[in-house]
Amino acid sequence: MDVVAAHYAASDRGDLDGMLAPITATTTWTEAEGFPYAGTYTGPDEVRENVFFAIGKDWDGYTFALAELVDGGQTVIGLGHYHATNKKSGRSFTARVAHVWKFDGDTVASFEQIVDSVPVAAAID
Q1: How many Å apart are CA 99 and CA 4, to the nearest integer?
Q2: CA 33 to CA 28: how far, in whole Å?
Q3: Which residues pair with 75 in a beta bridge?
Q4: Side-chain-side CA neighbours of residue 119 (13 Å)
Q5: pLDDT, tens digit, 9 for 90 and up, residues 62-90
Q6: Is 62 helix (H, G, I), strand (E, B) or coil?
Q7: Which residues pair with 71 in a beta bridge?
Q8: What is the DSSP secondary structure assignment for residue 33, as one 8-state letter?
Q9: DSSP 3-state assignment of 36?
Q10: What's the predicted TM-score (pTM) here?
Q11: 85: buried, middle or exposed (CB in 10 Å: 19+, 13-18, 0-12)?
């Protein structure tokens, strides 16, 4: 759970390297269907390029506000909200989200995002 808490602390600081620190070359990172960056990416370079750089290109003030961190042993869940303003449309959104982190021992095996993508899409259109 400390690894996930450290990821979110790095996010709060705007520290992308710190956010990607627990992601190994074999970690899979899945963004939900219906989300603008949907897909499964493997390793920190793919996640950096296809998720975080893409978000930075399209949104201002993109944040994740952690409301609760649930320790399930080899599965840790982060619950909270995304908020951002679309650079092109100027519209903002807030969306409920869950992050499911699965571990293989001390290593992050996978990350899966589950998000209400309707408000995100509405901010784009």
Answers
A1: 10
A2: 15
A3: 102
A4: 13
A5: 999 999 999 999 999 999 999 999 999 99
A6: strand
A7: 76
A8: T
A9: coil
A10: 0.95
A11: middle
